[in-house]
Amino acid sequence: MQQPQPKPTFPPQHQDRQPGREAEMNPLPQFDNPNYKSAGKLAGKRALITGGDSGIGRAIAVAFAKESADVSIIHLRENSDANHTVAEVEKLGQRCIQIAADLRDEQAAYSAVEHTMQQLGGIDILINNAAVQYPQNSILDITKDQLINTFESNFYSYFYTTKAALPHLGFGAAIINTTSVTAFRGKPTLIDYSSTKGAIVSFTRSMALSLVEQGIRVNAVAPGPVWTPLIVSSFSAEEVETFGSTTPMQKAAQPYELAPVYVFLASADSSNISGQVFHVNGGEVIN
């Protein structure tokens, strides 16, 4: 199959700091599907979502609220985006608490989990979703500090948060990790990022085997291009302009298009599924 040629899909734009601000993106990401039909799949459940202030995390929080779950979101510094997510969840009649925490620090992960326990009374679903990426043209341009920061942000945070939450997870609980298509096909300008996402795949499979006897399922979702603040805060304005256009579907996904997969993996509908990676990537075949 011939690789599609890049074509303009978004207005060129760039934000100078990660994580970016969703409120400043043009167009705004679509985090809610107004045609979504809820069925109470997560009634009575309590979910903890890292990176829940914007992008895929916000879409998950809203979809979970539609399925009658209460939500705790952890974010780094984007308070206005987090406030927006809280308001959207509360409009749906569910509780939503926000926690500002740097999950590169193990104690911060424990504190965030404890705060969630105090406010929601328990955790039934853990979504590890936070990430950063710093494109570089060569491994020679990746400094030791960047490598450490990328792994601490993208992988250590998953490890720390899972470790902190595990004593509070009971039989039937679900852990869902966000990996990436780059874990499977690589990307020459995202060597350290892709490596963290590969680590997340192995982490998912190992944790699924480790926790199977406790009745806790562990799965992952591997997005392709998705229109989120991470994109405008890590790529150049020129790269943003054609973002997602080389997928078979020739477009980037909107965050709401990912959320139903997380609902499925968090609910009893996937009760016989663990250790798997679900690919939502615009039609790219991953074997």
Q: What can you see in these coordinates?
A:
This protein is 37% helix and 13% strand. Helix 3 runs parallel beside helix 4 and helix 4 packs parallel to helix 6. The chain has nine helices and seven strands; from the N terminus they run βαβαβαβαβααβαααβ. It has a seven-stranded parallel sheet with strand order 3-2-1-4-5-6-7, sandwiched between helices. Helix 2 links the parallel strand 2 and strand 3 (96-100). It is globular and about 45 Å long. The chain is α/β, with parallel strands linked by helices.
Taking the alpha carbons of the first and last residues, their distance comes to: 16 Å
Catalogue the unreliable spans. none
Rg (C-alpha, Å)? 18 Å
Multimerization state = single chain
> In sequence order, what are the helices and strands, one letter per element?
EHEHEHEHEHHEHHHE
Indicate the proportion of strand residues: 5-15%
Helix proportion? 25-40%
Break the fold down into its secondary structure elements and pairings.
Blueprint: E1 46-50, H1 55-66, E2 70-75, H2 79-91, E3 96-100, H3 106-120, E4 125-128, H4 144-165, E5 174-178, H5 182-185, H6 191-211, E6 217-223, H7 229-234, H8 237-241, H9 259-266, E7 277-280
Parallel strand pairs: 1-2, 1-4, 2-3, 4-5, 5-6, 6-7
Helix pairs in contact: 1-2, 1-9, 3-4, 4-6
